[in-house]
Design a protein that fits this description.
about 600 residues; 4 domains
Length: about 600
C-alpha cells in the first residue's frame, strides 16, 4: 500500500495546472500493514484537493462579481459626467474615486501587515510576475502622476473662489494612493499568498477595479480635451458643462499661472493612464497567483545576461527612428494648426509613418523566419503573467486595427484621388500588417524557452565530462573502476574521439544559434525603440484622424469622435505594453 500511495502522489504532481495551484496536504505513512489507515489517508488527500479547488473557484467568483459591480458603477458615473446634457456633476465622480482609493489604500496597508507577520519564508514567489522593468516603469509613471496631482492642486488653489474643495482633496488622496500602491506592488507583486485568501482576492479585485475606474476617468478627460477643438463654435459657446476631471462651468482659468497648471497636467495625462494600466495588470497577476503552489521545476528563475554594446545595430537604427519621429512630431504639431501648412504637415506625418511601419513589419517578418529556423523548445507550463501579456497584446491592438478599418472603408468609399488620401490608405493598411506581424513575433518569443535553459544542461555535462569522461555516463564508482580495469587503451581512445567529435558538433551548434540569437535581439531592440515613438505621437496629441477631415466628413462628428476616442486609448496602451514585452523577448533571446 505504501507503493500505491507514492505512485498516487507522483501522479498528482504530474497532473498539471490544477494541482500546481492547490494545497496538497502531507500524507503521513504509518509503518506496518495497517491498510485501513492508508486507505483513509488516500481518501482524505483526494477529498481535500477537491474541496480546495472548489473553494478557489468560489473565491474567484465572489471577488470577480465585486469587481464587475465596482467597474460598471464607475463606468456609468464617468461616462455620464462626460456629457453636458446629463445631470451628473463632477463632484459625484471625484467622490466615488476618492472613496475607492481610500478603501484600496486601507486594504493594502492591511495586506502588508499580514505578510510582514507571516513572511518567514512561507510565502512562495512567482519569479515571472512583476519583472524589474515592469516595476521600474510603474515607478516612473507613478512619479509623473504625482507631478500631475501637484499641478491639479495648484490649478484648484488658484480657482478656490469658484471650485469645490473636493477638487483639492481628490488629487491629494490620489497622490497618497499612488505612493502606497507603488510600494505595495514593488514589494508584493510576486507573492503567491497562502493566508486569508478570500479576503486577499477581494482586496486585489478592489485594487484592479479602482485602477480601471481611474483609467476611464483620465482617458475620458484627455480624449475630450484633444477633440474639443473640432466642435463648432456654436457648440462651444452654448455648452457650459463640465468633463470628468476637467473644468467646471463658470470657473475657467484667466491667469497665466492657472493656464500653465492646466496645460501641464494635460500633457502628463498619458503617464497617469499608463500607470493605472500597469497597476491593473500587476494586480490581476497577483489575483491569479493567490493560493498558487509552485513546483520546483517551475519556480526557478533563469539568470539572463544582456549587453547593449554587443547589439549596436538595432540600437542605432532604433534611436535614429526615435529621434526622427520626435522631429516630425514637433513640426507636425506646429504646422498642422495653420491652414497654409496643414496639408504639408499631414503628408510629412504620413511619409514618416509609412516608412517606419514598413521597416517594423519587415523586421517582424525576418524575426518570424528566424524562429522557424530556431530549434529552441516551446515553454508550455502555466504562467499567469505571460497569459495576461498575450491577452493584452491582442485585445489592445484591436483598438488601432478598428480605427484603421474604418479609415479604409471611408477612403475607398470616397474614391481617393489625391496624394493625401492615398497616403492615408497606405498608412491604414500598413498599420494592420505591422500590428499583426509584431503580435505574432512577440507572442512566439514569449513562449520560447530562453537560450540559457536550452544549453545550460549541455554545457554543465560537458564540464563534468572534461574532468572525467566516464562519470557522465556512470554514476556508480564501481562501474567506472570496472571499465578502467577491463577496457583497453583502444576503448579509452575511442571514448576520447567520440568526446572530441561531440565537442565539435556542440561548438557548431552554439555558433549556429549565436547568430540567430543576435539577430533576434537586434530586431527586438529596434522594435522596442520604434514602439516608443508610436506611443509618444498619439499620446501627446497627434490626431491625424481629425486633422485630415476625410473620416470626419464621411462618418460625421459624433460617430467618428466616438470611434477614435474609444479605439485610440487602447492603441496607445498597446504600444507601451509591447515595449515591456519586447524587452522581455530581447532578454530571453
Amino acid at each position: 500500500m505504501l507503493k500505491r500511495v507514492i505512485q498516487f502522489g507522483v501522479m498528482k504532481l504530474n497532473m498539471g495546472d490544477q494541482q500546481t495551484e492547490s494545497h496538497i496536504p502531507t500524507v503521513t505513512h504509518k509503518e506496518g500493514p495497517d491498510s485501513k489507515f492508508e486507505k483513509t489517508s488516500l481518501n482524505a488527500l483526494s477529498t481535500n484537493s477537491s474541496e480546495t479547488a472548489d473553494w478557489k473557484k468560489g473565491g474567484r467568483l465572489m471577488s470577480g462579481l465585486i469587481g464587475i459591480h465596482i467597474v460598471l458603477l464607475g463606468c456609468a458615473l464617468v461616462s455620464s459626467g462626460a456629457f453636458y446634457e446629463v445631470a451628473v456633476v463632477e463632484r459625484e465622480v471625484l467622490s466615488y474615486l476618492s472613496v475607492l482609493m481610500c478603501l484600496t489604500g486601507c486594504w493594502m496597508v492591511t495586506y502588508l501587515l499580514w505578510t510582514a507577520r507571516y513572511n518567514n519564508g512561507i510565502i512562495p514567489k512567482d519569479s515571472h510576475a512583476g519583472p524589474i522593468w515592469l516595476r521600474g516603469g510603474l515607478v516612473l509613471f507613478g512619479v509623473c502622476t504625482l507631478v500631475l496631482d501637484v499641478l491639479k492642486i495648484g490649478k484648484s488653489v488658484t480657482l478656490s473662489h469658484c471650485e469645490s474643495p473636493l477638487k483639492i482633496v481628490h488629487p491629494v488622496i490620489q497622490g497618497l494612493f499612488v505612493v502606497m500602491q507603488t510600494y505595495f506592488l514593488w514589494v508584493s507583486s510576486q507573492d503567491c499568498i497562502q493566508i486569508h485568501m478570500n479576503l486577499t482576492r477581494c482586496g486585489l479585485m478592489l485594487t484592479l477595479s479602482t485602477n480601471l475606474i481611474i483609467w476611464m476617468a483620465a482617458v475620458t478627460d484627455e480624449s475630450m480635451h484633444q477633440s474639443v477643438h473640432e466642435e463648432s463654435p456654436v457648440v462651444n459657446d452654448t455648452q457650459g458643462g463640465h468633463r470628468a476631471g476637467g473644468g467646471s462651468s463658470g470657473c475657467d482659468c484667466v491667469t497665466e499661472i492657472c493656464k500653465s497648471f492646466e496645460t501641464g497636467y494635460y500633457y502628463l495625462y498619458p503617464f497617469n493612464i499608463e500607470y493605472s494600466l500597469f497597476a491593473s495588470a500587476m494586480a490581476y497577476v497577483m489575483w491569479k497567483n493567490v493560493g498558487r503552489v509552485l513546483m520546483n521545476h517551475h519556480s526557478h528563475q533563469t539568470q539572463h545576461s544582456f549587453n547593449v554594446k554587443k547589439h549596436i545595430m538595432g540600437l542605432v537604427f532604433g534611436i535614429v527612428l526615435l529621434v526622427t519621429g520626435l522631429g516630425v512630431f514637433i513640426v507636425y504639431e506646429i504646422e498642422v494648426n495653420s491652414e497654409e501648412t496643414k496639408s504639408q504637415a499631414l503628408i510629412m506625418f504620413y511619409i514618416f509613418n509609412i516608412v517606419a511601419l514598413s521597416l517594423m513589419s519587415a523586421s517582424s517578418l525576418v524575426a518570424l523566419i528566424i524562429y522557424r529556423l530556431d530549434k529552441r523548445d516551446m515553454d508550455g507550463h502555466k504562467n499567469p503573467t505571460r497569459a495576461l501579456d498575450v491577452t493584452l497584446l491582442i485585445g489592445a491592438a484591436l483598438g488601432q486595427i478598428c480605427i484603421s478599418y474604418y479609415s479604409i472603408i471611408a477612403i475607398i468609399a470616397t474614391s481617393p484621388g489625391n496624394e493625401l488620401e492615398s497616403m492615408n490608405l497606405v498608412y491604414a493598411l500598413l498599420m494592420i500588417v505591422q500590428l499583426t506581424l509584431q503580435n505574432v513575433f512577440i507572442i512566439e518569443g514569449l513562449h520560447r524557452k530562453p537560450i540559457d535553459d536550452n544549453f545550460h544542461m549541455h554545457h554543465a555535462s560537458e564540464a563534468i565530462h572534461d574532468k572525467n569522461p566516464h562519470r557522465e555516463v556512470y554514476s556508480n564508482p564501481m562501474a567506472i573502476h570496472s571499465i578502467d580495469n577491463h577496457s583497453g587503451p583502444g576503448h579509452v581512445n575511442e571514448l576520447d574521439a567520440n568526446h572530441h567529435e561531440s565537442n565539435h558538433h556542440s561548438t557548431l551548434r552554439d555558433v549556429h544559434n549565436g547568430w540567430k540569437s543576435k539577430f533576434l535581439r537586434e530586431i527586438s531592440l529596434f522594435l522596442l525603440l520604434s514602439n516608443i515613438i508610436f506611443w509618444i505621437m498619439p499620446a501627446f496629441g497627434a490626431r491625424p484622424q481629425f486633422d485630415n477631415g476625410l473620416e470626419l466628413n464621411f462618418y460625421g462628428y459624433p460617430m467618428w469622435v466616438a470611434i477614435v476616442n474609444i479605439g485610440l486609448p487602447f492603441g496607445i496602451f498597446y504600444r507601451m505594453h509591447s515595449v515591456a514585452s519586447l524587452l522581455e523577448v530581447c532578454v530571453m533571446s
